[in-house]
Specification:
- By secondary structure, the chain is an alpha+beta fold.
- The protein has two domains: about 1-65, Ribosomal protein L11, N-terminal domain (2-Layer Sandwich), CATH 3.30.1550; about 70-150, Ribosomal protein L11/L12, C-terminal domain (Arc Repressor Mutant, subunit A), CATH 1.10.10.
- The chain has six helices and five strands, in the order βααββαβααβα.
- The strands form two sheets. The chain has a three-stranded antiparallel β-sheet.
- Helix 3 (about 70-80) crosses helix 5 (about 120-130) and helix 5 runs antiparallel to helix 6 (about 140-150).
- The longest helix is centred in the C-terminal third of the chain and has 15 residues, at about 120-130.
- The chain is elongated and about 60 Å long.
- The model has no long low-confidence stretch (mean pLDDT about 90).
Length: about 160
């Protein structure tokens, strides 16, 4: 089996680099592969998405496409409706999210995070929000992390 791994913009993969040169020599129908990738990644429009194309059987040209989850920072920026972080997270803020939005990102990233439970996943996502200069419910993300650790805010354990 041959695997081609790359990052593509959601819904906008093309036959050019990096996919075309990697898949072309394998004899796959490039147009169909790109169409399938774009269909599977369209919900991640505007974000870089990890994609793996596994050529299961080169003789029959059978392949499978595995779509990964975009980076936490990309998901947070999409939720906040911003293009980039503040760059000076202690001086200015780039955007604001609700705790529910942070939980939504944590849930979608849970399998790729180091955490064993939802509480840990939310704390990890809050760390990324902090570095991007994104506040949560109008409060610095570090403060929210502290309140979760102290038990003042319950985000669930599962």
């Amino acid at each position: 089996m041959v695997a081609v791994k790359t990052m593509v913009e959601g819904g906008k993969a093309t036959t050019g680099p990096p996919l075309g040169p990697a898949l072309g020599p394998l004899g796959l129908n490039l147009g169909q592969v790109i169409k399938d990738i774009n269909e599977k990644t369209k919900s991640f429009a505007g974000m870089q998405v990890p994609v793996t194309v596994n050529v299961v059987d080169p003789s029959t040209k059978k392949y499978e496409i595995i779509i990964g989850v975009p980076p936490t920072s990309a998901l947070l920026k999409k939720e906040a409706g911003i293009e980039k972080g503040s760059g000076k997270n202690k001086e200015s803020y780039a955007g604001n999210l609700t705790l529910d939005q942070v939980k939504k990102v944590a849930e979608s990233k849970k399998s790729a995070l180091l955490s064993y439970n939802m509480k840990g996943a939310v704390l990890e996502v809050l760390g990324t929000a902090l570095s991007l200069g994104i506040t949560v419910d109008g409060t610095n993300a570090a403060e929210i992390q502290h309140k979760i650790k102290a038990g003042e805010i319950d985000v669930g354990e599962n």
